[in-house]
Specification:
By secondary structure, this protein is of the alpha+beta class. It has 2 domains: 110 residues, no CATH class; 173 residues, Alpha-Beta Plaits (2-Layer Sandwich). It contains 10 helices and 5 strands. The protein has a 5-stranded mixed beta sheet, with helices on both faces. A hairpin with a 2-residue loop joins strand 2 and strand 3. Helix 2 packs antiparallel against helix 3 and helix 9 packs across helix 10. The chain starts with 20 loop residues before the first helix and ends with a helix.
């Protein structure tokens, strides 16, 4: 040997190895690199197993790591036994490696059928494609259902809007009918003036307002003179035309918005003048009386002339404590009777106290009783 190392320090394999430095270096370096690679593989497997705790077959990883370590030890001992004849130790390590290898092989035999059940990349890709197709189909079905639902919702909204429009139209029609019924219930069909009911309602409201505010309130009762004789001479249709004309004259000659005229009954009319005292009421009544005369509606059966005239009773009672609206109506009615008794075709005003009204009413009742 060129190295000068005694022969007894080398492996006594019973063969004549002519060891030189190059051959020795080749064996030692190769075994060292193999051992280093073997020892690094279990470290990598351990790191991988710790990171992926969800993976199955963890026992296989452990057994395979142990097998790799044992294989690495055999290469380390191959280097060691070049200078140290510890062949029993090397044999023991190889025996352990053999056992570990056998156990690993047995474990792999048991694990391989289970591992074969693990789907391949192609199988996973195919299954993923099927799942994607199923998902797309479900999305298409859901989208179609959603669109159908939206269409149905749009139809329902249209129906709802149509029903709402119908309901609003019906409500307006009903309201119009209700207003028309109210108008008919409070309107005289012949003259188109408010009727007795409408007049009584307004009179009550204006009376209460006058009591609260202290404002004056006047009333005029109007009666067409000798209207029975007019009907007897000209007939009822002409009499109706005459009443319409009288109503138009009364309405057109009341200028203020709150002045109110109504057909009180038969040939009688009633005029209500809010915020009007005695002088104003008398003036208004004279204007109305003159307007009817000026119209010169023919009445050949009238004892006081050949035209239609009317009598006016005016009342403007002082609003004393305890009085009612009946007092105002009674005063206007009493003044109207006086106008008739005085010859008709005139305006009569009377300011009577409640006590005087009671006496007048009792007197008239006694005269009317046979």
């Amino acid at each position: 040997m060129d190295s000068g190392t005694p022969i007894e320090h080398f492996m006594p394999h019973g063969m004549c190895y002519l060891w030189d430095v190059r051959m020795l270096s080749l064996h030692v370096i190769s075994d060292a690199v193999i051992a280093l690679a073997y020892f690094s593989i279990p470290i990598i497997l351990l790191f991988f197993a710790r990171k992926r705790t969800d993976l199955p077959f963890r026992g296989v990883f452990a057994m395979f790591g142990l097998f790799i370590v044992a294989c690495g030890m055999t290469h380390v001992l191959d280097i060691w036994t070049i200078w140290h004849p510890t062949y029993w130790l090397a044999g023991g390590v190889k025996a352990v490696t053999a056992c570990v290898s056998l156990a690993t092989a047995v474990l792999l035999v048991r694990v391989v059928p289970q591992a074969l059940k693990i789907k391949s990349r192609a199988d996973l890709s195919h299954e993923l494609a099927e799942l994607n197709a199923t998902l797309e189909e479900q999305v298409l079905v859901r989208t179609t259902s959603l669109l159908e639902g939206q269409d149905l919702l749009a139809d329902l909204n249209e129906q709802l809007q149509a029903r709402t429009l119908e309901a609003e139209t019906a409500t307006r029609v009903m309201k119009a009918h209700e207003n028309e019924l109210k108008r008919l219930a409070t309107t005289d069909p012949l003259t188109d003036l408010p009727n007795r009911r409408a007049f009584d309602d307004l009179l009550d409201r204006e009376w209460r307002l006058a009591r609260r505010t202290g404002a004056p309130l006047a009333m005029i009762m109007v009666d067409v003179d000798f209207f029975k004789e007019y009907n007897d001479r000209y007939g009822h249709p002409t009499g109706d035309t005459c009443l319409k004309a009288i109503a138009g004259l009364l309405r057109s000659n009341l200028k203020r918005p709150r002045d109110f005229v109504a057909r009180y009954g038969g040939e009688e009319f009633a005029v209500l003048l809010p915020d009007t005292g005695a002088d104003g009421a008398i003036h208004a009544a004279e204007l109305l009386c003159n307007a009817i005369r000026t119209a010169e509606i023919a009445h050949r059966g009238s004892p006081i002339g050949n035209i239609v005239t009317a009598s006016f009773g005016v009342a403007a009672l002082p609003l004393q404590r305890g009085e009612t609206v009946t007092a105002l109506v009674a005063a206007a009615d009493e003044a109207l009777y006086e106008a008739k008794d005085a010859g008709r075709n005139r305006v009569v005003f009377r300011r009577l106290s409640p006590a005087q009204l009671v006496l007048q009413l009792e007197r008239r009742s006694a005269e009317a009783t046979p």
